[in-house]
Amino acid sequence: MSLVHIIDLPMLGDDRGQLVAIEGNKQVPFDIKRVYYIYGTGSSVSRGFHAHKELEQMAVCVSGSCEMILDDGKYKETVYMNSPKQGVMVPSLVWHEMHDFSDDCVLLVFASDHYDEADYIRNYQEFLTYHK
Ligand code: T46
Questions:
Q1: pLDDT by residue for the chain (132 residues), tens digit each?
Q2: Cα gap 70→6, rounded to integer Å
Q3: H helices within the chain, ranges in order?
Q4: By C-alpha distance, which of 46, 35, 60, 56 is closest to 110?
Q5: Which of the listed residues 34, 36, 121 should we mutate to test ligand 1's pocket, taking the one with most ligand atoms within 8 A of CB?
Q6: Which of 49, 50, 81 to mutate to test the pocket of ligand 1 (most atoms within 8 A of CB)?
Q7: Strands 120-121 and 34-39, sheet pairing
Q8: Rounded CA separation 60/115 (Å)
Q9: Is the pTM of this model over 0.70?
């Protein structure tokens, strides 16, 4: 089974331009408790390098492009993100890294819970023990 779960977001655009609406428990399969966005990341900079113990997330590249690596400790997949019409699910206990940000990349993330550093697993060896 693929690690990459893409959600096609409904486009509500018309001749004035595009509009995408995202609602919790509809397009995003959880209650949205937090939204954050990442931008201004240089192309040589990589981010992420962690998994979450409980947090569920969906990321949308609303501008530009970047790559997301998803790794469940057994399989690793890379997804190229360049569409504001597609959400990429980042489930709990999946190690994720983001690379190759374009200058205009804006990565919007919907999260199922408030920020909690205790929910992060930032050590890869420790992450692997969660899958044993
Ligand atoms: C994730 C990927 C996709 C907060 O104080 N509140 C927040 O809601 C977030 C997301 C971060 N922070 C603080 C924690 C760090 O001191 O902001 C700083 C940068 O966060 P971090 O180094 O974790 O950033 P990324 O880009 O490596 O990871 C982020 C999210 O933290 C993470 O949950 O899944 O984006």
A1: 799 999 999 999 999 999 999 999 999 999 999 999 999 999 999 999 999 999 999 999 999 999 999 999 999 999 999 999 999 999 999 999 999 999 999 999 999 999 999 999 999 999 999 987
A2: 12
A3: 124-129
A4: 35
A5: 36
A6: 50
A7: unpaired
A8: 19
A9: yes
